[in-house]
């Protein structure tokens, strides 16, 4: 094991530790948003019948980032739950983004390229829907 | 069923799934999908959508604890993420052509395989990286803490590991699971990373893989907020409880029991799939 590799390992570790805390923060925040939306929904629609036996697909407004944000602005409880879901999907994406920055600071261009490619694939899935 | 009743039942079930997932080390998805489809009669597509969201939650939530132990190899993780995210995006395309019954059958097979793997005796192989190989060129070698010292390890057979990760990505998207078992096998068995490094790096990768397909499924309307809410809260609560239990009590008999339950769930999924009831 060369010295440079050890130094890299050390820097990776410090970066990882901050990222781990950030990720947990993201999970707590999104769980809180989901819970708030859920309580709001149940308070007003607790007696509404629900069934998931057959797949009908969610309405357009709950399928895109823009649609969800618009619903949240109008105070729609279901959209608030979906915002929590979006925040959750965003946490690993944020982690990959920070990895790109971390590798760039280490001037490790091969891994900047790797993590940028992963980031691009994730954003492609989220924005274009595959 | 009324929304409130359904929410409370789902919440309780998801807590059990999170607990079992944490104690067996297999994650919540493999328990959650059968629970939702077999137990609550939820369409498998909604179950897969909700499960992927939970997989992200448990993976990200556990990351801080794993990082503190200092085992994750972020280079290995990031390089192999290329394979799992491409696999996951391909899996979302395949999902359109695979029937619910076929999904149930594949799920049953993966579940039996996972349960068997969780009982396997672990053999630690520490490899040296051969010069000139892909592992050397990608600088994947690192160190991990063992008995208070930093131990060096190398990485072998990177292309085999990469191919297995591609398969793990496809399975993750098709079935709504983290595919942690396949990921650990790829790193531990194929690439000869130390077991602890394999499991923590796998945890890091699971969230990223699931985010790739969850984004696509959100667009397809697989993610129902009213169903997802109790599922996510329940799984997180169950997984947190499971992590506490793991640190405090002797869980081996409990793990055996849960593995038996998973095999029973697997057989039921196979039966329902083969008889086209799902």
Strand segment tally of chain A? 0
**Number of DSSP E strands of chain B:** 2
Number of helices of chain B: 11
Mean pLDDT of chain A: 87
Residues in β-strands, percent of chain B: under 5%
The total domain count of chain A is: 1
Q: State the strand order across the main sheet of chain B.
A: 1-2
How many angstroms does the end-to-end distance of chain A come to?
41 Å
Largest sheet descriptor of chain A: none
Number of structural units classed as domains of chain B: 1
Helix share bin of chain A:
over 70%
Span between N and C termini of chain B?
Answer: 20 Å
Number of helices of chain A: 4
The backbone outline of chain A, from C-alpha atoms, is elongated
Mean pLDDT of chain B: 89
Radius of gyration of chain B: 18 Å
Short précis:
The complex is a heterodimer of chains A (130) and B (278). With 130 residues, chain A is an all-alpha fold.
Give a verbal description of the structure:
The complex is a heterodimer of chains A (130) and B (278). Chain A has 130 residues and is mostly helical. Chain A has one domain. Chain A has helices at 3-45, 65-73, 77-105, 109-128. The radius of gyration of chain A is 19 Å and the shape is elongated. Chain B is mainly alpha-helical. In chain B, 74% of the residues lie in helices and 4% in strands. In chain B, strands 1-2 form a two-stranded antiparallel sheet. Chain B is globular.
List the helices and strands and how they pair.
The complex is a heterodimer of chains A (130) and B (278).
Chain A: H1 3-45, H2 65-73, H3 77-105, H4 109-128
Helix pairs in contact in A: 1-3, 2-3, 3-4
Chain B: H1 3-24, H2 29-40, H3 44-69, H4 74-94, H5 100-119, H6 134-137, E1 142-146, E2 149-153, H7 158-175, H8 180-190, H9 195-220, H10 225-248, H11 252-274
Antiparallel strand pairs in B: 1-2
Supply database-style keywords.
heterodimer, A: 130 residues, mainly alpha, 4 helices, B: 278 residues, 11 helices, 74% helix, globular
């Amino acid at each position: 094991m060369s010295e440079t590799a050890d130094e890299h390992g050390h820097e990776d570790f410090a970066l990882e530790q901050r990222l781990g805390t950030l990720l947990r923060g993201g999970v707590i925040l999104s769980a809180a948003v989901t819970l708030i939306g859920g309580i709001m929904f149940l308070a007003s629609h607790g007696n509404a019948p629900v069934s998931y036996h057959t797949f009908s697909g969610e309405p357009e407004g709950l399928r895109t980032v823009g649609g969800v944000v618009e619903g949240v602005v109008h105070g729609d409880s279901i959209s608030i739950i979906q915002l929590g879901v979006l925040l959750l999907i965003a946490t690993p994406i944020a982690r990959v983004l920070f990895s790109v920055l971390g590798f760039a600071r280490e001037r490790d261009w091969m891994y900047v390229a790797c993590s940028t490619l992963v980031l691009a694939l994730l954003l492609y899935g989220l924005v274009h829907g595959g | 069923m009324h929304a409130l009743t359904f929410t409370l039942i789902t919440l309780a079930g998801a807590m059990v799934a999170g607990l079992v997932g944490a104690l067996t080390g297999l994650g919540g998805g493999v328990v959650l999908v059968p629970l939702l489809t077999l137990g609550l009669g939820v369409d498998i597509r909604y179950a897969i959508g909700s499960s992927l969201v939970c997989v992200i939650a448990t993976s990200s939530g556990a990351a801080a604890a794993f990082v503190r132990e200092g085992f994750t190899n972020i280079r290995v993780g990031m390089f192999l993420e290329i394979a799992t995210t491409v696999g996951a995006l391909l899996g979302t395309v395949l999902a359109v052509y695979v029937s619910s019954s076929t999904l149930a059958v594949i799920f049953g097979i993966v579940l039996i395989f996972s349960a068997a793997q969780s009982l396997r005796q672990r053999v630690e192989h520490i490899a040296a990286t051969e010069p000139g190989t892909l592992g050397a060129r990608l600088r994947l070698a690192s160190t991990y803490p063992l008995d208070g010292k930093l131990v060096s390890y190398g990485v072998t057979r990177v292309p085999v590991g990469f191919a297995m990760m591609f398969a793990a990505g496809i399975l993750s998207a098709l079935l709504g699971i983290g595919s942690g078992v396949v990921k650990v096998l790829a790193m531990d068995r194929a690439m000869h990373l130390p077991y602890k490094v394999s499991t923590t790096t796998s945890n890091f990768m699971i969230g990223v893989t699931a985010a790739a397909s969850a984004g696509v499924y959100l667009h397809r309307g697989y993610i129902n907020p009213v169903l997802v809410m109790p599922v996510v809260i329940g799984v997180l609560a169950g997984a947190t409880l499971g992590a506490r239990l793991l640190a405090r009590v002797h869980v081996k008999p409990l793990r055996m029991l849960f593995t038996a339950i998973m095999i029973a769930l697997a057989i039921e999924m196979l039966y329902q799939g083969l008889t086209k009831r799902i």
